[in-house]
Amino acid sequence: MNALEVRNLTKTFGSTLANNDISLELRKGEILALLGENGSGKSTFVNQLAGIYAPESGEIFIDGKKVEFKSPQDAISAGVGMVHQHFKLVEVMSALENITLGEKAAGFFVKKQVLFEKINEIQNKFGFSIDLNRKLYEMSVSEKQTVEIIKILYQGARILILDEPTAVLTPQETEKLFAVLRRMKENGCSIIIITHKLNEVMEISDRVAVMRKGENAGLVETSSCTEKSLARLMLGGKFDYKVTRVAAGRSQNPVLVVKNLSSKNAYGKKSLDNLNFDLYGGEILGVAGIVGSGQKELCESLTGLLRVENGEAIFQNQNLLKLSPIEIKKLGVRMNFVPEDRLGMGLAAGLDITENVMMRSYSEESHFFLDRKKGSELATDIVERYAISTPSIHNPVRQLSGGNIQKVLLGRELEMHPKFLIVAYPFRGLDVGATNNIINMLNEQKKKGVAILLIGEDIDQLCALCDRLMVIHDGSIKGIVNPEQTSKENIGLMMMGKSVPAEKEDGNA
Ligand SMILES: Nc1ncnc2c1ncn2[C@@H]1O[C@H](COP(=O)(O)OP(=O)(O)OP(=O)(O)O)[C@@H](O)[C@H]1O
Questions:
Q1: Which residues does the UniProt record annotate as the domain ABC transporter (predicted)?
Q2: Which residues contact 440 (CB under 8 A, 6 or more apart)?
Q3: Ligand 1 centre and the CA of 39: distance in Å?
């Protein structure tokens, strides 16, 4: 008997047919990868399995028994739990409190010791080692994710759905997560994992379900696939998805020279610790680091959003650290920071694509785009060039899928013809096709001689695309390496603050 069976599920949003007649079987003890382009309907599908959306038609069976979920609680009671991209945890509470949250009604006076034992039993069974007394705000992203998983297991889930769980993990943390997933599988759990990373699909899944434009596009055994065949299945044709570093003439002198850049956070702790690096025109300098290692502060200090006490960043004979954001923009410095919450920065969710494109131009004090016709043309151009899937440019951006929201955000920035471009997490949540579009755009900018600082989270992508890679840990530079000569493992170790053999480092030369 299958752990989960879905028959003919259909869900529409207005005129968008997000899921059209989807059927799927999840076997007991299998890891099923769910793959599909941005906007193909993956989130809509799993949200129905987790009780967040109600299907319009179709049926769901758990262990052969038909179920109807009216809330996530119903799904959990039936054994289905979901780990979202944005954790639903309370920062000021301990791991124990978070895991047992919502249990009050069932037994407010349950002894803490009993809870500890119960949770630690789960930890031992699956190989977790979380200190249950620690507060969430003291934990790394990977530890928080573990708390989420323990919470779901504690609630009795046997079917786990993970939505892009590796997006914010280091290679080592990803391996650890995969080891846990394999252990769950051995213990009879069934898992659906959404990921855009084809190498991960190949590594962790038993089968792959592919969605295309809201429909089933295939269900295949992973052992019979290659990354290429999966990409083809997903995109419905031939596709060259390989990330490539293009050759471009690097400028003779650095375009940006950063010296002794240091900053402190609100509590007086160093958030950037004496950074020294150069950036040349026509090169992509990658920045790799665990989330929260100083990436945000680096972006903000170079764009005038964060005042730092020490150091200098010389660009066109001016110290960027002393200029205002507007003055910096006028010099041709552009930043595109894609935050975890894409709508949190730079886009107005309720406005349509045209209005969002115009809004940026308006804030730049250019009267050119205040002309709505010009705004529509640019919006149409961006939608076409970045293959944004939307019924029209007049749809509120809130209704676009995560990946498509991001394409609007990035497309808008790249239209501003930068000289020095800071791009943070541009591939977050993007499918291979969209990623390829963005890579081509960045390579095009590089060929034009633009200096690009690329802050990323996928080491494979960074290594394949960047000319040099700066690895940071806890606000300081652990090394600037030649990505062609440095192993992924060593980069991962440096991200965790460890030193690696010096001969592999490339320095700034
Ligand atoms: N709440 C909503 N209101 C209106 N339209 C929606 C809503 N949620 C999703 N859609 C639309 O349904 C389609 C499927 O979106 P969904 O988020 O399920 O795709 P996805 O495959 O998860 O994409 P991504 O990989 O970018 O996260 C898209 O066209 C999207 O614009």
A1: 4-238, 256-499
A2: none
A3: 5
Q: Are 206 and 153 in contact (CB under 8 A)?
A: no
**Alpha-carbon span 194 to 208, nearest angstrom:** 10
pLDDT value, residue 75? 96
Span from the CA of 490 to the centroid of ligand 1 (angstroms):
37
Q: What are the chain's domains? A: 4-235 (3.40.50.300), 253-332+419-509 (3.40.50.300), 344-417 (no CATH)
Q: Give the residue whose CA is nearest to atom 2 of ligand 1.
A: 399
Q: Hey, whose CA ends up nearest to atom 4 of ligand 1?
A: 399
Q: Which of 423, 139, 435 is nearest to 295 (CA)?
A: 423
Rounded to whole angstroms, the Cα distance separating 373 from 54 reads: 39
Residue nearest to atom 3 of ligand 1 (CA): 399
List Cβ neighbours of 36 (8 Å cut-off, separation of 6 or more): 42, 210, 211, 212, 217, 234, 431
Judged by DSSP in three states, 247 sits in coil
What is the complex's ipTM, to 2 decimals?
A: 0.97
pLDDT at 266: 72
Across 103-110, average pLDDT: 57
pTM above 0.80, yes or no: no
Supply 142's token pair: 């990977």
Token duo for residue 181? 């997933």
Q: Which of 309, 235, 225 minimizes the C-alpha distance to 271?
A: 309
Do the Cβ atoms of 473 and 456 come closer than 8 Å? no
Contact yes or no for 422/336 (Cβ under 8 A):
yes
Closest CA to 383 of 354, 418, 423: 354
Burial class (CB in 10 A: 0-12, 13-18, 19+), 252: exposed
- How far does residue 203's CA lie from ligand 1's centre (Å)? 27
Ligand 1 shell residues, CB under 6 Å: 13, 16, 18, 36, 38-44, 389, 399-404, 429
Count CA within 13 A, CB hemisphere, residue 282. Answer: 11
